[in-house]
């Protein structure tokens, strides 16, 4: 029986698991790993496949069965991190955006970062003005199809490509004009380099948004960039805090706290509420990793961070990689022949297609309130692959759009958004930007507008390789996602409850410590244990003084009272 158990255990340890990793060009890398294989092993396999040396900027992302996304931790077993059933499906993405992408040593690294930022632009995470959008799209066009050729590129050729969530004919003409007149002769590498230099100057470069709510119940997106922590509401950046001003990050349940120390010793605490405790923990871990990567001078300065208070155990996390300065120093020492780059070209894609049949705005006169209606359901099949880092549930801004009615799922394909052409930006997508990569489907308004509860549409998750459990409403999470201004009182009550619980915990811990000290005192004074530890304590002058002047009189008084009580009980 023992031999049978040992053979079964050995077979379980030797079991192999199939892994599929989707790369930035939408190709797939498939491999098998052992049960105890660490995340670093899988990541090294990928980097070897890509011939990538500057690999510290990248990571592997996966989604669990609860539709919460995670970064694969390289120091832990892959199988233990994956809660889904095999085969496992993951994505290779940029995890830490380079502070200066144009300064990367190798062209292969710049090309992969280019693919990531191109994906960000397409999915509405990279906000920009129309003029900047046209230039970025023209760089992509030049990198992918080369110089303009009248024989190959007929009138309106730029309309066949989808660079943004949506765009107008006017923008298409501007893109074609720049491509024809300004970029002729640029190689793909040069166009990609110019694209990176331009993207780096935008405020939302490197943003990976986490949907949250502030203390007033307003929707917001939190993000970590190479330069600091940002908060976005609507299409505007409302907070920007440099990394050296962030003193601490912690979370409790769904609540995320950011402690900031600014000039003149001004200290503030920013509080936000995530959709779920898992999303809040993921937000906290991303913040810890980003701050360590961009702020520290060397990896030896990295410390284990805890989300708990002084006496209570909480989540503990430690960043395990190198920091940005070390990565740059290591990159400068690379000396090899530049590896060959196999550019994907213009191929249909699940998540970031160049050739598309997606929505396009018609060109209209620029009037003050002239607007156009576009359908947002076309091309949704191309948005299945996602690189977003938060659960695929998001609440929309109340002032972002007005749906035609309170229809159910059957009406969702007929809903339209109203977008003013005169204030058009490629990032002005259906949801408040930045939007998730596959969350272009309309949500209903919050109860602030129509007095009705929000309806949350679950989105398809092909990244996880698991079917979507789409439901029209999820009451358990609507309370977290659809809080209006009326939830402010509830938030205050929750804070009071948390304070009371903290005080009770402190009292409990204090009583426990006093009880332990009392037991230690009794052992020291009354027991016959003669260990070296107790002997050293008993021989100290302070202990002898305490023993004879305080403890012995207290013991005699207590014994006298006990005898008096016993005699009283006997007499009665």
Automatic annotation (TrEMBL):
Q: Region entry Disordered: which residue ranges? A: 389-411, 455-474
First-listed, main subcellular location of the protein, grouped into a coarse class = other
Cellular-component GO terms for this entry = adherens junction; cytoskeleton
Coiled-coil regions listed in the entry: none
> InterPro entries annotated for this entry?
Band_41_domain, Ez/rad/moesin-like, FA, FERM/acyl-CoA-bd_prot_sf, FERM_2, FERM_central, FERM_CS, FERM_domain
Where would you find this protein in the cell?
Answer: Cell junction, Adherens junction
- Which Gene Ontology biological process is one annotated for this entry? actomyosin structure organization
User: Where exactly are the transmembrane stretches of this chain?
Assistant: 503-525
Its job: May be involved in regulation of cell migration. May regulate cell-matrix interactions via its interaction with ITGB5 and modifying ITGB5 cytoplasmic tail interactions such as with FERMT2 and TLN1. May regulate ROCK1 kinase activity possibly involved in regulation of actin stress fiber formation.
Q: Which organism is it from?
A: Aythya fuligula (Tufted duck)
GO MF terms here are: cytoskeletal protein binding
Can you tell which superkingdom this protein's organism belongs to? Eukaryota
What CDD domains does UniProt report for this protein, alphabetically?
A: FERM_B-lobe, FERM_C_FRMD3_FRMD5, FERM_F1_FRMD3
Tell me any Pfam family this protein matches.
FERM_M
Outline the extent of the FERM domain.
17-298
User: What's this protein's name?
Assistant: FERM domain-containing protein 5
UniProt entry keywords in alphabetical sequence: Cell junction, Membrane, Phosphoprotein, Transmembrane, Transmembrane helix
The answer to whether keyword Nucleus applies is no
